[in-house]
Specification:
Among the domains are: 44 residues; 176 residues; 91 residues, no CATH class. The protein has 20 helices and eight strands. A four-stranded mixed β-sheet has the order 1-3-7-6, covered by helices on one side. Strands 2-8-5-4 form a four-stranded antiparallel β-sheet. A hairpin with a 4-residue loop joins strand 6 and strand 7. The longest helix has 30 residues. The radius of gyration is 27 Å and the shape is globular. 34% of the residues are buried.
């Protein structure tokens, strides 16, 4: 990756004289150049300051001497990790990662969260009134899981809040899962520290953008979780780790590895964009939340299959569904989930067969009709897609959601067949199902649905709907 930024004040003058199709495009180009020039100046200032200061490397750190404090203890405040956990994990880090850590603190972080309530909302746990979100029903974590203070070298890991007598899974399993994620938070914050003392110190141009810092911390969190945290938990908490896997194997119907519960938190790109990801840890948490509504073991296993589907583990999802269908071969919800999964695996003929089987037992099942449409769309069989819409429409009473999906399929088919009139009619009917509060919202929704239809039909997006359009 090149370090050079070539924007200069002359660049700004030239852009100011250049002709553009619109003032909007000209202003956008100028704003981008101003940002680039500002970044170049920041980098030069950081490098200049760095060269003026002769700071010796921190001395090697004996992990047994790093102060660790525990604050905010209480009946409902649960620190996910112990002093022993921290010492053991620190000793496994490379020296460059732990060098210079001044102290580690386990706390509630209530004041820290309160300062950021405007950013995260004002939902609070019922016990400490900290700004929080739920990991599981009744189990709360802060919106920020930990922090690292650059000037003082303080690493903070924030506590979980819950009533241990009212949680949705056995207490030892809950504690083990939260321990795993508290340790992940610890290594994430140590990665920020390592970034300062080892990586950025050799090139502060890397730190002038927040996304570079977060990208590095997420990358190292993932690496150190797999290299250090998971092996440590397997050795030290082997019984709890096995119990959690056994519990999921029984309730969920599939045995998963410990890495499944860790998930993958690598979301930030070097460009600053965030990947929209539904990780396996999120899938597990979502599934636990659903368990209270699962009346049978088959229900809980189907719910787990859908969570595997949502995080793109289609092979494991299909394996689980096949085991469920052995005892209940005509179970409609499992058949429709399997048909949808087969589409994602590009096994279209099998998906079509399973969807038709579901329709034999439930002729108006919207999920099966939608899967049939997805198959025709994947095959570019646009006339068959239109015929499917007609048959779907006459299959019985349609829900609001089913009606919307049918109209999308119809618009896509007409778009691919170059029937703009039919496409617009379907899109207008689709948009009529929304209650847009302002003309601006209506316009954005209309643009979004046109882009979606053109893309799925495999046709170029017209200029009036593209991101470059007015």
């Amino acid at each position: 990756m090149a370090r050079s930024i070539h924007t200069t004040r002359r660049t700004l003058r030239e852009l100011g004289r250049k002709k553009y199709a619109s003032d909007k495009e000209k202003n956008a180009a100028l704003e981008e150049a101003v940002e680039s020039l500002g970044r170049k100046r920041r980098i030069k200032r950081m490098v200049r300051n760095e060269r003026r200061i002769n700071v010796p490397d921190p001395a090697p750190t004996d992990t047994s001497t790093i102060p660790i404090s525990i604050r905010d203890e209480g009946e409902f405040v649960h620190h996910g990790i112990s002093l022993e956990d921290i010492r053991a994990v620190l000793s496994a880090f490379p020296e460059s990662a732990r060098r210079g850590i001044s102290r580690i603190q386990l706390s509630l972080g209530k004041a820290y969260m309160d300062e950021r309530a405007d950013e995260f909302g004002d939902k609070r746990d019922p016990f400490t009134k900290r700004v929080s979100s739920e990991v599981f029903p009744g189990v709360y974590c802060g919106h920020i899981l930990g922090s690292f203070t650059i000037k003082s070298g303080l690493v903070s890991v924030y506590a979980f809040v819950y009533d241990s007598t009212r949680i949705p899974l056995p207490l030892p399993l809950c504690e083990f899962y939260l321990r795993l994620h508290a340790l992940k938070t610890l290594v994430h914050e140590i990665a920020h520290h390592h970034d300062q003392v080892a990586r950025i110190a050799r090139g502060r141009w890397l730190a002038d953008r927040k996304q570079n810092v977060e990208w590095y911390a997420e990358k190292m969190e993932h690496q150190w979780t797999n290299d250090i945290i998971l092996p440590y938990l397997e050795r030290t908490y082997h019984r709890e780790a096995l119990a959690l896997r056994n519990w999921v194997a029984r309730r969920g119907g599939l045995r998963v590895g410990l890495d499944f519960f860790a998930g993958d938190s690598r979301r930030t790109e070097r460009s600053g964009l965030e990947r929209l990801v539904f990780t396996t840890s999120s899938a597990f948490e979502s599934w636990v939340e659903e368990l209270s509504e699962c009346k049978t073991l088959a229900d809980s296993r189907l719910a787990f299959a859908w969570e595997l589907h949502y995080c793109d583990l289609y092979g494991q999802c299909l394996e689980l569904l096949d085991s469920v269908l052995v005892s209940s071969p005509d179970w409609i919800p499992a058949l429709t989930c399997k048909a949808d999964t087969l589409v994602h695996l590009e096994r279209l003929n099998e998906a079509f067969f399973v969807a038709n089987r579901a329709l034999e037992f439930a002729p108006a099942n919207a999920d099966a009709w939608e899967t049939r449409g997805d198959v025709f769309e994947c095959q570019d069989n646009w006339n068959a897609l239109l015929e499917n819409c007609i048959a779907w429409e006459h299959s019985g009473r349609l829900s609001r959601r089913a009606r919307k999906e049918l109209l999308i399929h119809r618009a896509i088919a007409y778009c691919a067949l170059d029937n703009n009139s039919g496409m617009e009619t379907a899109i207008r009917a689709y948009l009529a199902s929304f209650d847009s509060k302002t003309p601006e919202i209506a316009a954005r929704r209309r643009k979004h649905i046109h882009i979606r239809v053109f893309r799925r039909a495999g046709r170029p997006i017209p200029p009036e709907f593209s991101s470059k359009g007015k």
